Amino acid sequence: MTPQNELRLLPWAGPDGKPCYLSTDDSGGYMSRLADNIEAVQLGTAADLVEQVAVVLGDRDAGPEDLHRMLTELTGALRDVLRVATSRGHLLAVSELQSTASLR
Length: 104
Fold this sequence. Notes:
The chain is mostly helical.
């Protein structure tokens, strides 16, 4: 999944919340597969949370604690989805640049 000589933004943060990157030419390697699987889980979790938020927002009896909990969970999921989108967007841009360069 990582174009040659490019770093892949991993779907988890390192110490102090700093981004983690993977440098590899093996898109089928252990770390690449682990990152792919975690990204899939993160995207699935975000999709599930969107449905749960809709239910909570439709519940007139939901209290401030319920709304706070949902917003906290949704914020974390959104952060994960943005990291996945950033990583995949960067990889697509690099891949397109490499394809264009190889056509010349």
